[in-house]
Amino acid sequence: xxxxxxxxxxxxxxxxxxxxxxxxxxxxxxxxxxxxxxxxxxxxxxxxxxxxxxxxxxxxxxxxxxxxxxxxxxxxxxxxxxxxxxxxxxxxxxxxxxxxxxxxxxxxxxxxxxxxxxxxxxxxxxxxxxxxxxxxxxxxxxxxxxxxxxxxxxxxxxxxxxxxxxxxxxxxxxxxxxxxxxxxxxxxxxxxxxxxxxxxxxxxxxxxxxxxxxxxxxxxxxxxxxxxxxxxxxxxxxxxxxxxxxxxxxxxxxxxxxxxxxxxxxxxxxxxxxxxxxxxxxxxxxxxxxxxxxxxxxxxxxxxxxxxxxxxxxxxxxxxxx
Length: 322
Hints:
Distance between the termini: 32 Å
Number of strands: 8
Helix content: 40-55%
Number of helices: 17
Shape: globular
Order of helices and strands: HHEHHHEHEEHHEEHHHEEHHHHHH
Structural class: mainly alpha
Number of domains: 2
Strand order of the largest sheet: 1-2
């Protein structure tokens, strides 16, 4: 039995590491098309992978001058696909861990993260407490949950999704309580208030009959209402204003983490959908740690073909996320 438990713990932590990479990629603003475009820029030999000399050109795109030591250290930090070469997946992970971009992947917007050689993945994994790891390891979290943005062919588990949502929230500067809610937002054993309110928030209409919901209540309202969807909840659940931003961050981190590669490829369409749904609460989001993400969405929409703008602004986000 102990050996089986050890294997289970190792599997959960392995999936969790995938989740950190996925969350970092999304919070850093990298869509698959952006990474492929950068790979084509660097790959002068057409191998769909880059060697150390080709990878060194990435420093110029970051506005940095890499000497031999810098170039070797940065190349060594990229997971190799085969000896001496880094492919799409390895480049994606390096970019997510070491740099930031915008949703459209404009090379001119590429810049270095703070703490360039910091172990970002290790930092996010270390932030999960022993108690939280114990809960994750007791749950059956191996089920397929969403497509992985870095490696779509790889099964992505619920454990990976939960850790990824926590990563996005942490990157957005959310507090520990919100990050913990992100880690367990789909696990109903957790009874923290944000987790309790997440499902009602997820089911809340963008436009409510009384104009007092999560999305359409005035930004300065003293409270707002969510639909009661869980057993024992009233038909309308009144929520204090101080929980509005945490729920909005939790909603969009969860949504962003489950966006399909196709949705991210159509960056302007996804961005317009987010901005349309959030139009009343944009001041709250813009003033939060997610403000940079929101600003990048606006830039993506502004750069989109003007002829498609009317289609984008009429989009309503369909369905609900888990």
